[in-house]
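Why run this: before we spend reagent on co-expression, it is cheaper to look at a predicted model of the complex and decide which construct boundaries make sense. The entries below are exactly what would go into the expression plan.
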Amino acid sequence: MNPNVTTVSVFVALILVTLLITAWASRRNKDVDQHYAAGGEIKGWQNGLAITSDFISAATLLGIVGLLALGNVTGFYIGVGGVFSLLLVLLLVAEPMRNLGRFTLADALTARFGDRGLRSTTALSTVAISIPYMIVQLVGAGVIIELLLGVDYAVAVLVIGALMAIYITAGGMLATTWIQIVQALVMIGAILLMAVLVLVRFDFNPIGVFTEAAAGLGSDALTPPHGLTGLDWTSFIMAQVLGIAGMPHILIRFFTVPDAQTARNSAAFAVWATVIVMVTMPILGYGAALIVGQDTITEAGEGGNLARPAARRRPRRAVPARLRRGRRLRRDPIHGRRARHRVLGGVLTRLLQQGAPSRCCQ
Amino acid sequence: MEPREQAADRAQRVPAFAELARRRTVFVASGAIGAFALIMTWLLVAAFTTVLDAAVIGGLTWTYLLGYLLFAVALAILHVYLRRAAAWDRLASRARQELDDRGRSA
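The model came back. Tokens follow.
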């Protein structure tokens, strides 16, 4: 079967599944509580997967793997920071949110502090946080669909935006939760599959990936940034660890479960799922660099197909010698941005196309 | 239905509930501060020294090894918290029972 037909079929099948979930959820939405909080009937593991899906979005995943593929350890920082941020969510906010809130973050804060001004301030803060976050997600989704299906970027963003609006207005929190569960399962499954496919080439020896990366990309690819750049990243991770505990779309997930114990269990499930995913990130990132090649990853051509790296569709442009080593590649933000979107699709395609496993980079 | 603020004030006067709140606050505060301090220490040592640059096993550097250990630490804190929280749930049930008994005798 033509890979493009496969890609389009899988994409259409996923859209159909999400629309069916929305139709099913819309029939169950009988009142406000059902619409905004799924009637508080979501189970712990379901909410845990939905929280995981909130955190491990396509943008996060592509960004982390892309950074690592370009020899930047800071991608791993984001993974560790993400796990600790969810741990703080568990310790500090999961149970209080469930006990105090009903539909929104403002409910929880006003129940505790009882100030009407607080409600409007919280509403404004929620909008201020959510709009940029939503834009990032729409851009990420638009880029992926553009690369996967070859449709115009603006059309991809509009279609995804319309689908999101349909899911939320028709299906409410119940549809949103189940779509997130499907997304989490698809993404975790894909990540684990790719990790296994990469490890096959290294005799299932994860250390071998690091060793090959140090040999092939330079030892700088496995060492952290120092000085002000290191401080910059420390500041970024500090914001991530403390900030996720204040993200409205994560906090309102705790209103969908029946009690504080379930809220606690769902946060614990999310921590475990995120650890499982983040542990594999260096394998995927360095695997992409070694199997696909940093040169291919950093090719700057626009368009292309995520399931087929651009280098295989158009004449290959020479990559300047100064960009060939990992230490230098990571300083090139323009190439880096474009590359991150191709890494996952590229590594998967190469692994599947090359058939029988053989050790790479020899 | 009793307003939440009044219910919270009444509950605070029950010794079992006060003990529960104190234990929970101590654990949660120390767990959160400890976890935050650990990850910040890892990042700052990586940023301002070169001790984590060296390879430990094959190409795996100390930066990665300690990062993976931090995953294990996060899971350890998680499970200690879950176990303690189960004990606090039992204390909370006792506190509720005490509140009900006071309500009946009043």
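Confidence is low (pLDDT under 50) at residues 300-342, 347-362 of chain A. The radius of gyration of chain A is 21 Å. Bring this page to Monday's planning discussion.
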